[in-house]
Write a structure and sequence with these properties.
mainly alpha; two-stranded antiparallel ribbon; 7 helices; elongated
Length: 218
């Protein structure tokens, strides 16, 4: 028996075949919130580190005056590391947070280079999710994933065509992809060979859809 994906696996199968609908949420507010949280934590750690540096410097000056054992501070990172000084521990924690902060900032910057989907791409995915052959599976808060008709909330992993051709793209996507999944998608999506009847039906669908698209433009 040929496996027929359902739920998210079926959405992934659709996106792998129709990359124009590879549309995902940006989560800009959450990304920036995490970046702000890391920034605030780093500022606190920086103040703690400066305080430890001042304390170590004061202790170092005192030990030199009393000719006692030196305090391991930032003047010698090797000794500071080997002694496990408070200053070095703060610096170690700060280094880890800075790496998280810098990596997240770079990731957000790269995400912002990805285009928003054009309306036809978002509409096509939303229509497919509503279609009975899409077998709606999203419930609760997950049902809101692609609910908003605001392209700026999303990113598309495939560069889109020019806006001038969006009307044509919208019609092709909504008609052909909708008919594809309504009548044939269940079989074609499972890598089955088309029967002669299915092949004839697909040909008729494509010809009729093409005529419908071209007629308003002529």
């Amino acid at each position: 028996m040929v496996y027929q994906p359902k739920g998210y696996p079926k959405v992934a199968s659709l996106m792998s075949k129709e990359k124009d609908v590879a549309v995902f949420r940006r989560f800009d507010d959450l990304n920036f919130l995490n970046l702000l949280a890391l920034q605030a934590e780093i500022i606190d750690l920086e103040k703690d580190l400066r305080r430890e540096c001042r304390l170590d410097d004061m202790a170092s000056d005192s030990s030199q005056q009393q000719q006692s054992e030196p305090v391991y501070n930032s003047e010698n990172f090797k000794l500071s590391r080997e002694s496990g000084s408070a200053q070095y521990q703060k610096l170690k924690t700060l280094r880890e947070r800075l790496m998280e902060y810098n990596e997240l900032a770079i990731q957000i910057s790269r995400l912002n280079t990805l285009d928003d989907p054009i309306p036809s791409q978002l509409d096509t995915l939303q229509d497919w999710l509503r279609d009975r052959n899409g077998r709606p599976f999203l419930t609760g808060y997950e049902a809101e994933t692609w609910a908003e008709n605001k392209p700026g909330l999303y990113m598309c992993l495939r560069p889109h065509v020019a806006e001038d051709s969006d009307l044509f793209t919208r019609y092709i996507s909504n008609v052909l992809l909708g008919l594809y999944h309504r009548f044939l998608g269940q079989d074609l999506g499972t890598a089955r060979l088309l029967t002669q009847q299915q092949g004839t039906l697909l040909t008729v669908v494509l010809v009729l859809a093409s005529l419908l698209v071209l007629s308003p433009l002529s």
